[in-house]
Design goal:
Layout (H helix, E strand, L loop, with lengths): L3 H6 L12 H21 L4 E6 L3 H17 L2 E2 L7 E6 L4 H20 L4 E6 L5 H10 L5 E3 L7 H11 L3 E3 L20 E5 L1 E2 L10 H5 L3 E2 L2 H13 L4 E5 L16 H9 L6 E5 L8 H9 L6 E3 L7 H6 L6 H14 L4 E8 L6 H14 L3 E6 L17 H23 L6 E9 L6 E5 L5 E5 L8 E9 L3 E6 L3
Parallel strand pairs: 1-2, 1-3, 3-4, 4-5, 5-6, 7-10, 10-11, 12-13, 13-14, 17-19
Antiparallel strand pairs: 8-9, 15-16, 15-18, 16-17, 18-19
Helix pairs in contact: 2-3, 2-6, 9-10, 13-14
The protein binds 5'-deoxyadenosine (5AD) and iron/sulfur cluster (SF4).
């Protein structure tokens, strides 16, 4: 990791280094000099706002973007009135795209008021050709556009925009190598995400991710471990290992390494107290992983295991490569190994050809498993995916009716599950002062359930024992036991 003093040493009179990440640190410095001039001109600090849509991966990417912006000298004000505004986009469902277009439309007036401001777009949506075409045609006031494969070049692209004052679009169809050691600005000092792999090879028939994030690439275990050690040294207690399908981590590395082996190595790091991971694909969840979770106390008793559908017929059309029975067997194995484990999931309703019978199979799994919580989605047609051209797209009113029934079933099970720790004493990692009551703090159990209890800012970042006095649906009100 580079520091401010390393930046001072970079000689910007020279041409940019060819090697990464040195090249990007060179451009961070060039941008910083440019911004200092702008600050002098305007007589004030310049500000930035970073807005993220979508998944944990995108939130983690935004932490990298914020770190670079801050090194350049922008003050992060979390507002669309800023001098530099970036949307890190998601395209997994159509409504995510629509939200971005809506927000972009509103930025036009702001840009008129502050013509020097810069608007940038990045993330998954930018990997789609029709999106870029639309932005070129209808949103010409956007200054900088890049995709998912070249986010590490953000500083270089921004500098190009600074000096050229024209619209910069740089989208790569394929991923290059993995660039290590770029700065990251953590939202919380005590917990963070850590990418272990990028991309996805599964091609579920409804999903756009493999097209916009590219093929699966695992980071080398030594790079992951040294980043995790550095984070632990900086006071991070909780790490979330991130990948689209963490269970297939390491399969494309030489020598091969399993995800369970990586988890053991991360769990050995002193200082780390909680290790999470996301997302697991049921087809790749190994017995080795279940045993490792059971044996390693630092690994949180929580697994996010997307079901998508409870109908074996639909699962096959989705190209998920497991059956309803396979899924139920996995849940049984997990609960047998760890009776207190929380299982959460993702479910799609209205996949093409889904009948009432198929839907009832999904409801049956929800009622049998009793998920701790579930993200439910209406199927959204993504251009270019196999499901988009399947017959029997389900009419909107049918999808809505099924979605509402699904939500009710999910909530009923979740309420019943969440309350099972009432009156127990459990460790809570305190995250922040309570949003509604300044005399209370808010934290999370190892299974991710939120707990509110009386306390002050000195507890933030600490793991404390809390009695879970009362379950209020999906969260607890508790009482601290020790300090
Ligand atoms: N329509 C609806 N939901 C989708 N997901 C992915 N693609 C689609 C789609 N086309 C959901 C899946 C996945 C989650 C991240 O988003 O449930 O697990
Ligand atoms: Fe999409 Fe399936 Fe890959 Fe998940 S595993 S990102 S749903 S293709």
């Amino acid at each position: 990791m580079y520091t401010e003093s390393d930046l001072e040493k970079i000689n910007t009179e020279l041409s940019p280094p060819e090697e990464e990440p040195e090249r990007q640190y060179f451009y961070i410095d060039m941008c910083r000099r440019y911004l200092l001039e702008k600050e002098k001109e305007k007589g004030r600090k310049l500000t930035c706002g970073v807005f993220t849509f979508g998944c944990q991966m995108n939130f983690h990417d935004s932490e990298k973007i914020i770190a670079i912006l801050q090194q350049i000298g922008y003050e992060n004000i979390d507002s669309e009135d800023a001098d530099f505004v970036i949307y890190n986009t998601c395209t997994v469902r159509e409504n995510a795209n629509e939200r971005v277009y809506g927000r972009l439309g509103q930025l036009k007036a702001r840009k008129k008021k502050n013509p020097d401001s810069i608007i940038a777009l990045c993330g998954c949506m930018m990997q789609e050709e029709h999106v870029i075409k639309k932005i070129r045609e209808s949103y010409s006031y956007v200054d900088l556009i890049f995709g998912t494969h070249n986010i590490y070049k953000f500083a270089e692209l921004l500098y190009t925009r600074f000096i050229s004052e024209r619209q910069i679009i740089d989208i790569w169809k394929e991923a290059g190598g993995i660039v290590e050691e770029l700065p990251v600005q953590r939202k919380f000092s005590f917990k963070t995400g850590l990418n272990i792999m990028y991309g996805c090879n599964n091609f579920c028939s409804y999903c756009i991710v493999p097209y916009v994030r590219g093929r699966e690439r695992s980071r080398k275990p030594e790079d992951i471990i040294s980043e995790a050690e550095r984070l632990a040294g900086e006071g991070v207690k909780e790490i979330m290992l991130l990948g689209q399908n963490v269970n297939s981590y390491g399969k494309n590395l030489k020598p091969e390494i399993t995800f369970a082996e990586l988890l053991k190595r991360v769990a050995d790091i002193d200082g780390l107290e909680r290790i999470r991971f996301m997302t697991s694909h049921p087809k790749d969840l190994s017995d080795e992983l279940i045993t490792t979770m059971k044996e390693q106390k630092k690994i949180c008793r929580h697994i996010h295991l997307p079901l998508q559908s409870g109908s074996t017929r639909i699962l096959q059309k989705m190209n998920r490569r497991y059956t309803k029975e396979d899924y139920l067997a996995l849940v049984y194995k997990l609960r047998e190994a760890m009776p207190d484990i929380s299982i959460t999931t993702d479910i799609i309703t209205g996949f093409p050809g889904e009948t009432e019978e198929d839907f009832k199979e999904t409801l049956d799994v929800v009622k049998t498993v009793k998920f701790d919580s579930a993200f439910t989605f209406k199927y959204s047609k993504r251009t270019g995916t196999p499901a988009a051209s399947m017959d029997n797209q389900v009419p909107d009113d049918v999808v809505k009716e099924r979605f509402d029934r699904l939500l009710l079933a999910v909530q009923e099970a979740a309420n019943e599950r969440t309350g099972r720790f009432e009156e127990h004493v459990k460790p809570v990692l305190v995250e922040e002062i309570n949003e509604h009551n300044p005399n209370m703090v808010t934290g999370r159990l190892e299974n991710n359930t939120v707990v509110h209890f009386a306390g002050d800012a000195s507890l933030i970042g600490q793991i404390v024992d809390v009695k879970l006095s009362e379950c209020k649906g999906f969260y607890y009100i508790g009482e601290i036991i020790n300090k």
